[in-house]
Design goal:
Mg(2+) binds at residues 70, 89, 91-92, 211. This protein is α+β, with helices and mostly antiparallel strands. The protein has helices at 4-27, 45-61, 94-99, 162-167, 172-178, 188-196, 209-221, 247-257, and strands at 33-35, 42-44, 65-69, 84-92, 105-112, 115-123, 128-133, 137-140, 143-144, 157-160, 181-183, 202-206, 225-227, 241-245. The model has no long low-confidence stretch (mean pLDDT 96). Bound molecules: D-MYO-inositol-1-phosphate and calcium ion (2 copies). One calcium ion binds at residues 47, 70, 89-92, 94.
Amino acid sequence: MVAWQEINHQVQSWLKEVRTMILAEMKQQQIQVEQKTCRTDLVTNVDREVEAFYSQKIKESFANSKIHGEECEHATGLHEHPGLFWLIDPIDGTLNFIQQEADFATMLAIFENGKPKLAYIYDVMHDELFWGGPECGVYCNEKEITPPSNCPLEKGLFAMGGNLVLHNRYNIQKIAQQSLGVRVYGCAGIEFTRVLTGKTVGYLACLCPWDYAAGTILAETLGLVVKTIDGQPVNMLSSTDVLVATKSAHKEILKAIHQD
Ligand code: IPD
Ligand code: CA
Ligand code: CA
């Protein structure tokens, strides 16, 4: 086992370097945008550079590591790997990064011997680093986060992925109507941080592993519920729909999803 403090010390220094790198590239207006699968699925040179930076640092510092990242390396066997397993989303909210220069994050989730170890969601423009894990609790920068209250759906704001709204999937309109109001921030990592801090009572979206791995570790550490829409535990390498919520909101949302 590697001491969490040792990993944390290294990772926090990499994150600061990444923030400096991103801000410098934004200032120099050196951002090149490319399409991946369609006109709304974009990647930039910064996404690729950041992921390459993390991969290099991980390999230099923690030799017995496997890496699963959005842009480059795709490892398998999370639960079988006897060492550290890293999930990387170099820039989460790339559309926000390109269009708004705000509300994007860089994220890392770390597992050891198949179990959650540490997670990081760094809101670059606000310089707010959400980090932690089961061994140390959850923090925003240096301040420990207390678990949010068990707020029900009708008394809280509910957030969702944009695609669910566009196609009214999972009875999303019904869930939205039961809530106090809806929010769509366009960055899964930032959506998770709003649930962690009690600003929203839940977030439902269709996502990839690098989008939800860090948020899931932090949310579960705080006693929030993170499940698929069938109420099953999230599989960190293969789930595609994820709901994070307070216990109370979670029950109400699941009920609404499966109503006719
Ligand atoms: C996206 C964002 C967005 C979510 C998409 C993700 P990316 O990540 O997290 O909020 O709705 O499903 O793909 O591609 O910007 O890293
Ligand atoms: Ca990304
Ligand atoms: Ca993402």
